[in-house]
Design goal:
Radius of gyration: 13 Å
Order of helices and strands: EHEHEHEH
Structural class: alpha/beta
Oligomer: single chain
Number of helices: 4
C-alpha cells in the first residue's frame, strides 16, 4: 500500500479533507495522512460537514503536527497551500513531493467548502494518481 502525506499550514481544513477523500477513494491502494506545518489543533466544522454531505467517513480525523508524522516512510508528500510548499521539510528518504495549491475556505460561506472538496477530487486526486504511477 502506498503512503501519502498531505501537508498544509494548519491541518484544520484542506489537508484534513484531502486525507479523508484519498482514503475514501483508494481504501486498498493508498494510506493517506495529513499534517500541518503549524497545526491548529482543531478540525474545521465546515470541513467535516462537507465531507459528511458526500458520505465520506470523518471518524478519527484530527489536526496533527508534522513532527508526529515524520517516522512514516511516505511514497509521496503533497502540499496544498503555498506556505506549506515553501516550508516543506526535507524527508530522510528523498520522498517525491508535489504541490497543488488550493484556496483556503476557512471563514467563508459553506459552499466554498464544497468547492474545495470538488477541487480536491478534480485537481489533487488525478495528480496523486499520476505521481504514484511514475
Amino acid at each position: 500500500m502506498k503512503k501519502v502525506l498531505i501537508l498544509c499550514t494548519g491541518n484544520s481544513c484542506r489537508s484534513i479533507m484531502a486525507e479523508a477523500v484519498v482514503n475514501y477513494t483508494y481504501p486498498n491502494e493508498i494510506q493517506c495522512y495529513s499534517s500541518g506545518v503549524k497545526a491548529s489543533g482543531s478540525v474545521n466544522e465546515n470541513a467535516i460537514k462537507a465531507l459528511m454531505e458526500f458520505g465520506i467517513d470523518t471518524e478519527g480525523l484530527h489536526s496533527k503536527t508534522l513532527d508526529t508524522m515524520m517516522d512514516i516512510d511516505y511514497d509521496l508528500v503533497v502540499t496544498v497551500c503555498d506556505h506549506a510548499n515553501e516550508t516543506c521539510p526535507l524527508f530522510p528518504k528523498g520522498v517525491q513531493t508535489l504541490h497543488v495549491g488550493i484556496v483556503d475556505p476557512t471563514g467563508k460561506k459553506f459552499y466554498e467548502y464544497l468547492k474545495t472538496l470538488n477541487e480536491i477530487k478534480t485537481l489533487v486526486l488525478p495528480k496523486i494518481e499520476e505521481a504514484l504511477r511514475n
